[in-house]
Amino acid sequence: MREIVITPLKTFSVPIEAEKICPDTVSSLALKEIEGIEVWEGNRKMPLSDLFQISGDEGSTSPKDTLISLKGDFSRVKRLGEKMSTGEVVVEGNAGMHAGNSMTGGEMTIKGDAADWLGREMHGGLITVKGNAANYVGSGYRGESCGMRGGEIAIEGSAGDYLGEHMCGGKIAVEGDVGDFPGASNRGGTIHIGGNAYLPGAEMASGTIVVKGCARVLPSYQLEGTVGLEGMTLKKFLGDLVDNGKGNLYAASVE
Amino acid sequence: MIIKGGTVYDPTNGILGEEMDISIENGKVVEEAKKGDVIDAKGFLVMPGGVDAHAHIAGAKVNTGRIMRPEDGRQGLEPKTKLLRPSTGYTVPNCYAMGYRYARLGYTTSFEAATPIIESRHTHEELEEIPIIDKGALTLFGNNWEVLECARDGDIDKLAAYISWGLRASRGYGVKVVNPGGGEAWGFGGNVTGLDDPVPDFDVTPREIIRSLMKANEMLNLPHSVHLHTNNLGKPGNYATTLETLKAVEDITSSMDRQVLHITHMQFSAYGGTGWRDFESKAPEIADYFNKHDQFTMDMGQLIFGSATTMTADAPLEYANARLLHAKWSNHDIELEESSGVVPLFYGRKMPINAIQWAIGLELALLTESPWKILMTTDHPNGGPFVNYPEVMTLLMSKPKRDEEIATLHSLVPKRSILATLDREMDWGEIAIMTRAAPAKILGLKDKGHLGIGADADVTIYDLNPEKIDPSKDYKKVKAAFSLAKYNVKGGEVVVKDGEIVSLPRGRTYWVDATVPEEHAQRVEADLVDKFTKYYSIQKSNYMVQDAYVTNPMVVKAGVI
Fold this sequence. Notes:
The complex is a heterodimer of chains A (255) and B (561). Chain A is mainly beta and 255 residues long. Chain A has a domain at 116-254. In chain A, 4% of the residues lie in helices and 36% in strands. Chain A is built from 2 helices and 18 strands. Chain A has helices at residues 23-26, 31-36; strands at residues 2-8, 16-17, 38-41, 44-47, 52-56, 66-70, 77-78, 88-91, 107-110, 126-129, 152-155, 171-174, 187-193, 197-198, 206-216, 222-229, 232-239, 247-254. In chain A, a hairpin with a 2-residue loop joins strand 3 (38-41) and strand 4. Chain B is an alpha/beta fold. Chain B has a domain at 55-94 and 110-121 and 134-447: TIM Barrel (Alpha-Beta Barrel), CATH 3.20.20. In chain B, 33% of the residues lie in helices and 22% in strands. Chain B has 18 helices and 24 strands. The interface between A and B is small, with 6 and 8 residues.
């Protein structure tokens, strides 16, 4: 596998739009050519080499055999791995907004934290976050009626508000707590929350949300009984009934 | 400027595929140009600039669509260049993109299809920002209180005086009528169900509203006829209402050489069935009626698969759409004048209703014998965005293309429509009529849609050799060429060259200044003082669109003789 290593040359004060840092774009390029890729820093366009040091293996491969290692702090670098279809991206530090958005395949690992809109409108592939993720994980961007449609996002820490908003498919698993309104307006897909959640599944039409901690459940959810799941006893709810929803909500305890 | 040796299609002047030169001077077509550039058009298709007689391109509801659909704004992004501003949007593009995209298609004129008087200032603010093309706006009259009262009283003189005032107040070009009576009823949660269903509190029927407006329109000698969006639009079985409407006005005659009534986006008004389950095409019945009656015209309102944003003054229809499709929606009550709504939706190939709707639009065009009676539109962006016009042109010109499309659609299409059995393939001349000559004639734009001496020098050159190419087989090539004009000349200036915009002249805005006898104007004035005092949220003095909002006007004179 060809490894391409990208390291920031400085601490960015202005966000970088780096949708071109993606296996599909760089796999066939020589390191020199990758250095010449143009990205936006704020309102200025500049070659990648002005902002990052590019190193790693030379040679041209298929996107599938490409590993992009991002070493350092990428918390102000947006749109990493946008629309990636295959290959691998590993962020050693934090990742900026919109990481892995619209990806259709491949793997992205973020060893630090992920900013807002992680994996939004994702269709396939796997995103793993070792730290925490911010708001709108796997959701649809402004106005979009369908967010994540497939693939998987695994977060080992906690996540912010509006997790999986407008989700239509795929799976999100968070080991820690999540913020307000996880799975709002979702129409499919599965959300697993290891910790607590506040008002999950508002306007949910269909889909599954499992809260293994404590959940504040909307009054428009109907308790259907208890079920055993993964060795736990969970309360099962049907909703969101304000929207004639047929979604399943499970919670270990209710606030 | 001389455009040399192109294969010219100018149906208004009886020119169908002749190799000839077109001379241009001072923005007009002339007998012989003394100087200027020469464009070698040998082997290329030359037509007058395209004219769109019905599109929603400016105003409050277009902007509501933009606000509601940030996700649409993410499509169609084009960065700014040295010459151009950035473009955004697919179904609801920004103002600049409207101008650029029309120009690239070879269009030079487009009319905004519906604007209430009170919101006309907004419409003109947007029209002013649309570059290149000439434009105008049709003003809504079908649910206006003053109109309803005049129609109830049978006072056509006063109605004509009000229309004259309304066109001046809105700097509007013609009389648009949307679901007459229904929009007013919707203000109280109701609708009208047919031509003889009285409007609550006004004791007037849609039949009376339509007839009165048509009579007043002809009394005023307006360049365009009444432009009607029928009652019951979008509902199964509505073809009966459409035919009843036409029969109800057969006795009214036109004041000039044009249609007496234009029914717009007919596709939405040609439905059979008693509900969505037995929904079917009634295009043959509609087309048959039009083939036998020469005083009426229509436009297609062709549906395009994919994303669309429906926007209309038919607010109850939009409410029904939103409930049916569980879509996001907006509704607006426009004081004493209208109601309106916006609903984004998605037309799917495998959705039986959408697939049949798609077939109905094409059936209407193919079954109507004379292309002068049916314009090519998509009711942008209700049926789909105008950038898809080349797709519609190829569908009309190629049976194999239609067959290829039908194969990808829901299997109900051949059972509920006869499109698959139609062999007609339109030729270049018929396409030139449907997209140029006929819309200009129907709108009453004497200098548009043709290339005779004295016409506006709006000329499009497409990279197509009509002698060599067979549009039936090479429809992909035809579509590509129609999508990006080789040249587009607007008012004698080259605006598009090889598909790229090269200059940005400012277009003009057409509006109609119609005069009426003073006594009737004074009667209207008295009513207006009363209405503005009692009901309107703004003062009459702040209501009129000032000249500052129409900085490049083209005023057409009309009035009671």
